[in-house]
């Protein structure tokens, strides 16, 4: 039995969806063949790590540690994955009837007069929310400085269930109804079922589950 196996999709230059697809397209046909290894032929019991990303997990081993999930934070599959091992272009079944909060984002206030506290406020946001996609080589690392600040502000705002008090940052932030996501960087909207309506800094997290495969 193999306790856990997978490929992260963010948080490092090599942690991306293309590499994850390549990894699973090699792994799953091997499992489906039931050939095992020369020492232990036959079916292999294996746990995929993991189902959903963990945005509050320790990043001591690396920023990729929060991005092992094969599903996004809202239960939607990240990439095609054929559990039959035939490498068909099919997706796993995602979560149904997901409810999101309002289509509003917290972005940088470009009209702010005093930006001396910008770095401190970004650090605050990233202390209580997951900013690992901003790290070098990650999905949002190519943003310009203002967009990186906006990402930090928004991920904190969404983590706080869109509490309006969580989108101020000493006047450096403002609300926007315009989706500021890019092709590579997703500015998320929080799912409604996790709304806690709290004004204190708390980061939400999901429980990692191991997906059991037995061919």
TrEMBL record:
Domain X8: 104-187
Protein family membership: Belongs to the glycosyl hydrolase 17 family.
UniProt protein name: X8 domain-containing protein
One Pfam family of this chain: X8
Transmembrane segments: 195-214
Record organism: Saponaria officinalis
MF-aspect GO terms: hydrolase activity, hydrolyzing O-glycosyl compounds
Keyword Metal-binding: no
Keyword vocabulary terms for this entry: Disulfide bond, Glycosidase, Hydrolase, Membrane, Signal, Transmembrane, Transmembrane helix
Biological processes, Gene Ontology terms: carbohydrate metabolic process
